């Protein structure tokens, strides 16, 4: 799951980034409306968390443009002003839900999950390869009927591999996609994470799904 947070207050942005990462999301952060619109249009996000008051371009204008551009990514907007007009305006412009600041992270996460459940783009809420299944909403992972307990990062890595099942994925690509944009280039972290993931996903079972392709990267596939 990929989330885009568009928020200019550093503390709130960091709080959201940290919380969502720990909840299994890969998080991009934009600090103004112009950057936010660019990332929203370029990226393949499952949900956007949009602050209303932003420099360069406010949340209203960003949302209107996004919908005009045909982007249907679910948007949860954050407003500091507890006024009914603002909420109605946001929903009219194509926001899917709103939250009034200050809010508890648990409430935000519940709203985000609810948006993901009803998002039309998520017609398939599960990923499956052979006997390995991931439910993208509840984030439950199971293989051959056994529930597997993964860390947030292991989960993100597995979802990325499964979304690209059958494709050989270079370490640098995995690092950029799973460890966010400012990855420092040391792909050892990928090898270590793959090893940990295999210990849970592959080793207890008869067949191996995550394979090393020498000199190229990793692939998850059934055969
Ligand atoms: Ca703001």
Spans of at least 5 consecutive residues whose pLDDT stays below 50 are none
Q: What shape does the CA trace take?
A: elongated
CATH class of the largest domain: Alpha Beta
- For the record, what is the CATH homologous superfamily label of the largest domain? Response regulator
Ligands in the model, by name, code or SMILES, are:
calcium ion
Average pLDDT, all residues: 87
CATH topology group of the largest domain: Rossmann fold
Give the biggest beta sheet: 5 strands, parallel
Range of helix content: 40-55%
By CATH, the architecture of the largest domain is named 3-Layer(aba) Sandwich
> With helices defined by DSSP (H or I, 4 residues minimum), what is the helix count?
8
For the terminal residues, how far apart are their CA atoms?
26 Å
